[in-house]
Amino acid sequence: MSEQNPLRGQQAPSAQPWLGTLEAEIGRELGQAVTLTAGGELPQPSRSFADRIEVPGARLLLISDSGDTAAFLAEARVVEAGQLDEGMLRELWSGILASVASRMGGKAIAATAPGPSGSPCVLGLGNAKLRLSLAVESTPAALHSSPAAPPAPVSAPGPGGRNFDLLFEVELDASVRFGSREMELKDLLELGPGDVVELDRQVADPVDLVVGDRIVARGEVVLVNGNFGLRVTEVAEPVRRLESIRCVW
Fold first, then answer.
1. What Cα–Cα distance (Å) separates residue 114 from each residue in 24, 42, 61, 164, 171?
2. Cα 230 from Cα 184, distance rounded (Å)
3. Any long-range contacts for 14-17 (C-beta under 8 Å, 24+ apart)?
4. CATH number of the 15-165 domain
5. In Å, how far are 63, 137, 208, 240 from 132, measured between CA atoms?
6. Which residues, 6+ apart, have CB-to-CB distance to 204 below 8 Å?
7. Does the structure show a pLDDT above 60 at 14?
8. Domain edges within the chain
């Protein structure tokens, strides 16, 4: 027996409750107001990402246009336009959906292929429009019912089945950089006690907080209980901070 499309049929939850739930959770995850509306054009399967969100009572298949995804995440200030390859972009989008699925009491799995198309919808943020295809497959317990209130969040696997929660406990070496300068080898070898090396930074300029080879924040040096500390005044975009730990992904 062929499966009915729950966005058109009467044997499964209608589209509207799921659109509203996804809209709220994606907006909460990004910390910005987004809109998710039915209609528009379907994304092209050949240039799209597919993610399956499994929540109590239903399985949601989201197919998103990869080009639209880049523009959308740039608008959300998750990435800078043109700064990521498709693999990293895929990981970021899947990570967002994994967190959304966790909030909804389920989990997200990156599909191996876009699969069959569902019903078109558009995720909007500012000037960015992300074309999506949403297909809903109901489990027997969910027939003739609407999505229930999200249960307490559970740990959600990230891209490729990896658990993002595990990354939060990874310890990283962070250092403060006051400045730098280029030196010739002979000058370096001639350094001795009492010599002064002038750096390329003024006293009033902020210093860098560095993880790996990435600047993740800037600020001013302060004293904390007799130790040096850093009062943060600028924070790098999320993608820059993510790139500093890419070696553990």
1. 24, 12, 9, 23, 36
2. 31
3. 14/146, 15/119, 15/121, 15/134, 15/136, 17/146, 17/147
4. 3.40.1550
5. 5, 16, 39, 27
6. none
7. no
8. 15-165, 174-248
Query: Could you tell me what percentage of the chain is helix, strand and coil, using 3-state DSSP and rounding each to the nearest 5?
Result: 30, 30, 40
The mean pLDDT of the chain is 75
The number of beta carbons lying within 10 Å of the beta carbon of residue 214 is 16
Closest CA to 100 of 18, 201, 190, 183: 18
Q: List pLDDT tens digits, range 202-232.
A: 878 888 888 877 788 888 888 887 788 888 8
Annotation: CATH topology of 174-248: Surface presentation of antigens (SPOA) (2.30.330)
Give start and end residues of each alpha helix (H) in the chain: 15-30, 66-75, 86-103, 164-167, 185-189, 238-243
Q: pTM score, two decimals?
A: 0.53
pLDDT of residue 129: 94
Size of the chain, expressed as the number of residues it contains = 249
Residue 47 contacts residue 64 (beta carbons within 8 Å)? no
Residue 232's contacts (CB-CB under 8 Å, 6 or more residues apart) are 209, 217, 218, 219
In tens, the pLDDT along 82-101 reads 666 777 788 888 888 888 88
Model pLDDT, residue 162: 44
Q: Output the 3-class SS for 158-208.
A: CHHHCEHHHHCCCCCCEEEECCCCCCCHHHHHCCCCCCCCCCCCCCCCCEE
